[in-house]
Amino acid sequence: MKPDSACTEVIQSIDFFPTMLEMAGIKLKKGVEIDGQSIVPLLRGKKEIDREAIFCHFPTYVIATKSLPGTYVRKGDWKLIRLYGEGPNRSNSFELYNLKDDISETKNLADKMPGKVKELDALISQHLKEIKAPLPIPNPDYNEKSFNLITDKPIQGWVPGGTCNIFVKDGLLIAESFGGDPSFSNNEIDGCSGDVILKMKMKSSSKGNGLIFWKSDKVHVFQAGYSVDFEINHDSKWHEYSVKLPVKNKLKGLRIDPSTKPGIIEFEWIEICSPEGKSLKKW
Fold first, then answer.
1. Residue 6, SS3 per DSSP
2. 159 with 200, same domain?
3. Distance CA 79, CA 73 (A)
């Protein structure tokens, strides 16, 4: 490219591999299929490459980032997002944006432009068929009543993280682990200084040891070295636990990792106490 020149063509990470092959003068092995295109022509000054649209397919939930399963297509100035199971009666929903006029994707035009939605959604269907992409399927054990209990809003300051949902039912805080890294944390803790004891009454049907992380006015993120592990009885019976936390400074946040496997962990109460046993904070 010439000095101070610019290229506005949209590319993806899938274009890196064929680009490096061409730059290195290496031919693709016979029978190997790739999704991307070399962008060497763009680097040599061509304004665009021969591609009708680009796609991104991510058909799964990520609780930590609040990501929903979906597929999007970008064609020209238009971007259509197909969200799986987010419409009425768990049907698909759509978001349509004109990126030329709305780069921040603040105006969903799907309801106003059903023809454009149909056109771009057909491209998504064709692409997914060509690449034999996995798609979400209905969960035979889905329960609408239970689903509605789950929220991404803080529950008395506690929010889920990792492979975990939290919700309240019958006065209990319930952590539902669906993977190997469940956790929930609270960053709204104030008024506790120095070493403390974290107490809790819980029962679990999961597996693995528990882990407690803390943040302070000196340690601003949850990290190794500022945590204590403790053994948990996963026998689906109530047990009380007491874990000493050598915080040293002002306590600002707690993260509870209640297991290492899928399962249900219930909490009747969680409490922060001084080393002498005085209650400082209780949920």
1. coil
2. yes
3. 6
User: Contact at 8 Å (CB) between 179 and 262?
Assistant: yes
Whether pTM > 0.85 for this model: the answer is no
Strand partners, 112: none
Residues of the chain with pLDDT under 50: 145-150
CB 194 within 8 A of CB 247: yes
Contact 72, 58 (CB under 8 A): no
Q: How far apart are alpha carbons 123 and 13 in whole angstroms?
A: 20
Query: Looking only at Cα atoms, what is the longest distance across the chain?
Result: 73
What's the CA gap between 86 and 108, in Å, rounded?
A: 15
| Residue type at position 211 | L
**How many angstroms from the chain centroid is the CA of residue 103?**
23
Total of domains in the chain: 3
Q: If DSSP codes are grouped into helix, strand and coil, which group holds residue 154?
A: coil
Structural domain including 175 reads 144-282
* CATH number, domain containing residue 94: 3.30.1120.10
**Going by C-beta distance under 8 Å and a sequence separation of 6 or more, which residues neighbour residue 237?**
203
- The two beta strands, 251-257 and 172-186, are antiparallel
pLDDT tens column, 23-44: 999 988 888 888 888 989 988 8
Find residue 162's DSSP bridge partners: 182
